[in-house]
Design a protein that fits this description.
Elements lengths: L2 H20 L7 H6 L14 H7 L9 H8 L3 H15 L4 E11 L17 H4 L9 H13 L4 E6 L8 H16 L3 E5 L5 H10 L3 E3 L6 H4 L8 H13 L3 E3 L2 E3 L5 H12 L7 E6 L7 H6 L6 H14 L4 E4 L8 H9 L4 E3 L12 H11 L2 E2 L16
Parallel strand pairs: 1-2, 1-9, 1-10, 2-3, 3-4, 4-5, 6-7, 7-8, 8-9
């Protein structure tokens, strides 16, 4: 194009530019403004994913939605485990694991109908588990001494009954057991069924560290497993415990015929508690012959993938909790247990027995932890790290 042609084009544009510059803006109605807002020239900042939210917060959150939890749960497994391990290191010493021992202080004769439990009197003819009297305080002391000598720092005591109502003498005796364990320098935990605040405070005064009362599974699946105690009764007991100043040990059982959505629902209930449970036991169901659950799930054992995903998701959304591998751990190979620890687990039950099922022994567990470079946690030493604010 020749120079004089370009100049002609430029001269032709100048009046047009000038007219725009000097022109008055056209009148615009308020309605038009509302209908046609000023366009955004930069795209809005995308909201954080559920995983990013879990990883970047500097304190536990108590308003997780089912959708957020499911999003985290369904994260590709390696990424999920990696994120959970990073979260674990933010809040915990990754070299420490708590060793816990559980003693059955009153076996059998429970009036509940939990379909998985061999201690229900409804199934005793088929399971062979008979009702027994509560053990003596001296027996508890001897068992606790043995557990302490083998490295356990939390001693738990379980009684097979529905609730503490009408068991004034039993509560007093349990209080003596708790005091004896506490005086030995060990943390103590009991699981005694439903309990009110007054009863819980009595145990608190005796030196009780934690009270175990599991929710077992999701609210939706719960009624397929238990009918004699409602889900809300369980939640009420947990709140009674927390209101009394005792730490709540609250988890559940995987392998009750539930679905992935039930794992999400289970975690939803726990993660929306305020405060979160101090201790979160994860049990792998050991189907016991003679219980109704045995026939239902004996060929449907929960897969490792589901266990790891549940633990990892729990670590991400309840970062301060101690996550315990509990009943059924003896069915897992060492590398499977290692995956659970990589995903945020930091406590195990160890010793001679888990109520009426097998348990990994002290020597076996201490050797395993040594191979992994892990050490037992000291009594009363657990305290989550202070986490400073961070951003995505």
């Amino acid at each position: 194009m020749r120079p004089n042609t370009i100049n002609t084009l430029v001269r032709g544009l100048r009046p047009f530019h000038s007219s725009i510059k000097n022109a008055s803006p056209p009148a615009v109605s308020a309605a038009a403004v509302e209908m046609d807002p000023e366009p955004e020239f930069f795209p809005p900042t995308p909201s954080k994913s559920a995983l990013e939210l879990a990883m970047t917060t500097n304190k536990p959150l108590h308003a997780w939605s089912r959708e957020q939890i499911k999003e985290i749960y369904q994260t590709p497994l390696i990424e999920l485990m990696h994120s959970a391990q990073l979260q674990h290191r933010k809040y915990h010493d990754p070299t420490k694991v708590q060793l816990c021992t559980l003693m059955n202080i009153k076996s059998g004769g429970c009036t509940e109908d939990c379909k998985y439990c061999s201690q229900s009197n409804r199934y005793s003819k088929d399971t062979g588990v008979k009702a027994e009297r509560m053990v003596q305080v001296d027996e508890v002391i001897e068992a606790a001494k043995e557990a302490k000598a083998n490295g356990s720092t939390r001693f738990c005591m379980g009684a097979a009954w529905r609730e503490m109502t009408g068991r004034k003498n039993g509560l007093k005796k349990v209080g003596e057991m708790v005091k004896a364990v506490h005086d030995m320098g060990m943390e103590s935990c009991v699981t005694l069924g439903m309990i009110n605040e007054e009863q819980a405070k009595e145990l608190k005064d005796a030196g009780l560290t934690a009270y175990n009362h599991n929710i077992d599974t999701s609210r939706e699946h719960y009624k397929k497993v238990i009918t004699t105690r409602s889900y809300d009764q369980r939640l009420k007991t947990i709140k009674n415990v927390q209101n009394s100043g005792i730490k709540a040990c609250t988890g559940g059982i995987l392998g009750l015929g539930e679905t992935e959505d039930d794992h999400v629902g289970f975690l939803y209930t726990l993660s929306n508690m305020s405060p979160h449970p101090e201790s979160l036991p994860i049990n792998r169901l050991v189907p016991i012959k003679g219980t109704p659950m045995y026939e239902e799930v004996k060929h449907k054992r929960v897969k490792l993938d589901a266990i790891v995903r549940t633990i990892a998701t729990a670590r991400l959304i309840m970062p301060e909790a101690i996550i315990r591998l509990a009943a059924g751990r003896y069915t897992m190979k060492e590398h499977e247990q290692a995956m659970c620890f990589m995903s945020g687990c930091n406590a195990v039950f160890t010793g001679k027995q888990m109520l009426t099922t097998q348990c990994n022994g002290w020597d076996e567990d201490k050797a395993m932890l040594k191979r992994w470079g892990l050490e037992p946690m000291e009594s009363f030493s657990y305290k989550p790290k202070e986490v400073h604010a961070c951003s995505a």
